[in-house]
Amino acid sequence: MRMSSTRGPLVAAAIFIVRVVAGQQQAPPQGQLHGNFSTDAQYYNEDDDIGAIVPRQRLAYNAWMNLIYTSGPFEAGARLESYEPALAGYPAGQAYKGSGLGYRYAKYRLSDLEVTAGNFFEQFGQGMVLRAYEERYLGVDNALDGVRVKYKPFRGVYLKALAGRQRFGFDNGAVKGAGLVRGADAEINLAELLDSTWTCAGNFIIGGSFVSKYQEDRDPLLELPENVGAWALRLNYTSPRWDVYAEYAYKINDPNGKNGFIYKPGEALMINATYASKGFGATIGAHSFDNMFYQSDRASPTPFDLNINFLPPLAKQHTYNLPATLYPYATQPNGEVAAQGEVFYKFKKGSALGGKYGTKLAVNASVAYALDTTRLGAADDTTRRLGYTSTIFGMGERRYFQDINVELRKKLSPTWELALTYLNLAYDIDIIQGKPGKPVVYADIVILEGLHNFTDRTSLRFELQHLSTKQNQGNWATALAELTFSPHWFIAAMDQYNYVGNAELEAEGQEQLHYPIGSVGYIRGGNRFQVNYGRQRAGIFCVGGVCRQVPAANGLTISITSTF
Q1: 33: nearest Cα among 42, 43, 41, 23
Q2: Handedness of CA 547, 61, 84, 173 (dihedral sign)
Q3: Residue 467 contacts residue 476 (beta carbons within 8 Å)
Q4: Closest CA to 542 of 306, 322, 296, 300
Q5: Coil vs helix vs strand at 105
Q6: Domain spans of the chain, in order of start
Q7: Would you call 434 exposed, middle or buried from its count of C-beta atoms within 10 A (0-12, 13-18, 19+)?
Q8: Does residue 542 carry a pLDDT above 90?
Q9: CB-based contact 79:64 (threshold 8 Å)
């Protein structure tokens, strides 16, 4: 009964939106309507061995459909969403429930002016003072609802201004947060601006941003700033071989629930440099973040809600199952100093190490430490409210994370390709995953990946992974095989085995468990169907350094995506 009661309003809303944005088929001939649909539905089984989550409603799903209409300089769009109920553990922040309109906007372009009213995503620079974006499979969506203006007064000069409130949650429609976000950004591309008078082989891009959030002060004990501003300056140099980027951000005192309501300003500095030539590439980067949580609601319930900014991590974003889901790194906005370096080299074909097809070698290392701080205010409350003193790139003694990895990729024949990867990790699970008292995890991971092409349309890809550690959950082994019958079908099977391999952990009750899962999929045109059945291990799911906890589950999952 509940499903049918929500279906009616949802269909009616879809028809209404199509009629509005399409003008009831009276649009000019050049008008186009396109979009996409996606749903993930799961039926949950009981599984006491893995502590599987079994919601009261055993069938849960996430579904959304985007509709976008364009006609000349005009564009309008909307997204219908439904969570009846949402998948267990989704989203990363505030809970989603019900069905309704989650995103809608209208936009037009006139010469060098672009105006958007409604919902929109935006980013200034690398996002250290503003990044409104979505990562749908994490449930991260801090879209702004308001007005944005973009203008190019001269060639090579780009201006932006915006104001709006962020998406906070979903309750039969998008729910907005309490704070108001306002911002402006300017960027100058010197090569474009100076045109023929610019004779430098490279190019300089200079930019600056200012963002302010407003939230009423209702605290009975503290006098909290109602307007909290942050600014950033950035410089990017590019040439045929070099790309050097630097950005500095400063935030005025912003007492909030994530920093203990201290009045210390925040600051951040990041520097990255990349060099590339034929067969060789190198990247080095470093950053320092200090008290840079920046949310439009100072009392946001979780670190995932109402984030105005984004602090990119300096760690390799692994795609292999074990390093990506067991021990991924997430940026620590309240304070960290990190560095990363990577070297890529391709041994030439015909050389001793290159062989007939060449050999690719990549070496990557990243490390993150706590910020060195000195606590203030043991004597009086006024000084204590300043929190601590620190210096930019002042590295503390506590190491949060270290990842040293080497990947060797080799094509052996026209039908065979292999890749061998080794990772050495140090992972402060107490800080990164919020597990107080747990020891630092030291792990070694070895991964063998292979691809065999039987024909032009049929191929087999496999992975064999092994993780060894004496901490946390002990040793893991993962085997994966994917058989593809192009262009329509694929079949996959994976088993994760936590065999522990440590007498002390087993004495504490750590069990040896298998997590098998099978998949079959079909692709045709813009449609993709996939069915999975098996166990899902409790752990961390990350995209781009942003992570959410995924509960243990056992059951059947059906996924459908369609683009039109």
Answers
A1: 23
A2: positive
A3: yes
A4: 322
A5: strand
A6: 314-518
A7: exposed
A8: no
A9: yes
Is residue 354 within 8 A of residue 508, CB to CB? The reply is no
Q: What are phi and psi of 321, to 5 degrees?
A: -60, -50
Pairing of strands 96-110, 157-171: parallel
User: Model-level pTM?
Assistant: 0.86
CA-nearest of 384, 372, 404, 111 to 262 is: 384
Question: Residues 5-16: pLDDT tens digits?
Answer: 444 444 454 444
Instruction: Return the pLDDT at 506.
Output: 74
The sign one gets for the Cα dihedral 393, 394, 395, 401 is: negative
Q: What are the pLDDT digits (tens) for 373-414?
A: 988 876 566 678 888 999 999 999 999 999 999 999 999 999
pLDDT above 90: percentage of residues in the chain? 68
Reference 333, options 266, 380, 412, 398; nearest CA is: 266
Report the candidate in 98, 100, 118, 94 with the shortest Cα–Cα distance to residue 108. Answer: 118
pLDDT at 383: 79
In angstroms, the CA 99 to CA 62 distance is: 10
CA 411 to chain centre: 31
Say what the alpha-carbon torsion angle 408, 344, 482, 553 is, to the nearest 10 degrees.
Answer: 100
